[in-house]
Amino acid sequence: MSSLKEEELTNILPKDGPTVEEVKKYLEKYNDEFIIIKCGGSVLVDPKLFKIFIEDVVVLNKLGFNPIIVHGGGKRINSKLSEVNIKSNFINGLRVTDKDTIDIVENVLIEFNKEIVEALNKLACKAKRITSKENNIITVIQENKDLGFVGTPIEINKALLTETIKVNEVPVVAPLGSDKDNQTFNINADTAAGSIAIELKARRLMIISDVEGVLDSEKKLITEINSKKANELIDQEVISGGMIPKIKNCLDVASNGVKAVVIIDGRKNHSLLFELLSDKGSGTLIREWKI
Fold first, then answer.
1. N or C: which end of the chain has fewer CB within 10 A?
2. Coil, strand, or helix at residue 202?
3. Predicted TM-score of the model (pTM)
């Protein structure tokens, strides 16, 4: 990784991203370690943000990182379901998924997966489609009866991911899995990304969404938080609503061998690069609390 010369770095890095000096400092830090990037929210529906996201992943790949993308698709799924007059119900933030719904969810996510892979390929970055139909890596069990076809990952095919990375391809994973009977299940994208990060003992799980990060009671960004403090904020209802399952998933990942989880704002320019390769970062870093 460190064999890149200054001139090469200048050519790889975007002009409005982190500086060459900063990047040089951080390159060593992530040598040959896995970076799992879960992408959702506006980044997947806003063409400008999507373009920056794809370009940033290409930069990481050229710098010698091992990025793995896990994408959501909630907004597109919502649009498609309302087109065919299927109303979604949610239990604790998870979509109740019946037989008709799972077929639509699967089709939307597979189509999305293809678009992400094609966007990377266009920029000469090889990528591999990983969906319930092609190269499935996630084995699931049903989360619970009430949710229908919503799965909890119980096994990740690590070999397929590592082989893909060995040939310098970026794995692009749809949050879908199959059970032992080969039935397709929808998986919460944060959960899917977390399971993959734990299985690979990743250096970082980056969760890109439409929030700045974790905010304190004054609505100011907390740049770093440990599990003890995060649980206090949940008890005090400073962290509330949809952020609770997100943070609990992050804490679970951070306590299972992943060095840190970061929630970053995908609406900010090059937030992925600034978080990994600059002094200031660009979100909230969540770590396990050590006594």
1. C
2. coil
3. 0.94
